[in-house]
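Forwarding these from the shared drive since the link keeps breaking.
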Amino acid sequence: MKLIVFFNGWGMDNKAVDHLIIPKNYEVKIVNFPYDLDSSIFKNYEDIIAIGWSFGSYYLCKYLNYNNIKLDKIISINGVPETIGEFGIPERIFEATLKNLTSETLKEFYHNMGADSENLFSNRNFQEIKAELQYFKDNYSPEKNVFSKVFIGKKDRIIPALRQEKYYNGHNIEVSIIQCPHYPFNFFKSWLDIIGEN
C-alpha cells in the first residue's frame, strides 16, 4: 500500500479535496492545521508522496525539515517555503488581510482564491480561522526548500504566480504552470493528476 500525505491550506478542512479520486493501492492522509502528524506513519508504507497546497506547502517544508524526513517525491501546489515576502504574499497585504479579517472579508478571500462554491468552504468557525492566520504570522520564518516538483496556478491571486516562479527558478525543480487560480482542485480530478503516476 502507498500513501499520499496532503498538507492542506489555511482555514481549510477535508472538504477542499474530498472530491478527488483516490487511486487503487493508495491511501490519503489529509493533514489540517495545526498540522500534527505522528512521524511513525512514514514507517508503515512502501512508498509515500507528500503534497502541500498554499500555506500547507510551507508547513510541509517545516514538518519535513524539523523531523529530518527524506522522501523521493514532494510536491507543492501554489505555495512556497518563503510564504511571506519577495517570493510569496507581499508583507503589507498579509498584514492588511489579518488586520481587516471578518467573516465577510473571508468570503471575499475565498472568491479571490477561486473557491466560490459554498461546499468548498470550511466548516470551521471564523475565530478559529483568524487565530490560525495570527499563529502563522507569530511563528513564521522562511523554510528550506524540500520540493521536487511544483504546480503554479497562472491565475493565482493569493500567492502571485510570478513570485512563485521567481523562487523556484532559483532551484533545480520541475515546474508545471497550470491554468487555475489559487484553489486548484477544480483543475484536478484525481490524486493521480497531481502525482503523475498510472
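-- next protein --
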Amino acid sequence: MEFWICLFAELRDNGYFDGGFLDKSLLQFCCMGLIQDELDDTAQVWNTHTIRPSKNISNPSGQPSVMYVLYGLYLTKDFLTSADTESIQFCKNECTFRRPIPCDPGVNELCNTIISESHLSLPKDPYQAVNLYMHLRDVIRSLL
C-alpha cells in the first residue's frame, strides 16, 4: 500500500491531482481494481502462510485458513456466534458494500466511452493506470 500512497502523492505534488470530484473519480476508475487485486492477494498470502511453532504454548502454529476451519485440531472451539435477523439487517444497513463500479456512474460511463473510442484497455499495472488516468483527465478536461 505504501507504493500506492507514494504514487498518489507524486501525482498531487506534480499538480496532476487536485482532490476534486473528477480527479478522485478518475483515480478510482483507473486504480481501484488493481488495488483490490493487491489486497486480495495479500489476504490470500496471510491466510495460507504457516505460523511457526513458538515457545509460548498459548500461540498455536499452522496455516490461519486451516486453523479457522479445523479449529478442533487446535484444541479450541468454534467462535462463530449466531445473530438474529434484525441485528443482521441493522448491520447490513450500516455497511457500505463494494459497488460493481469503482467510481461515480456518470464518470464510469464517460471513461469507458473514451477508452473505447481511443482503442485503449483497462490497466494491468500501476504505471498503465497512471497513464490512463492522465489520458482520461486530459480528454475530459478538454471537454469542459
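The chain has six helices and no strands. The radius of gyration is 22 Å.

- D.
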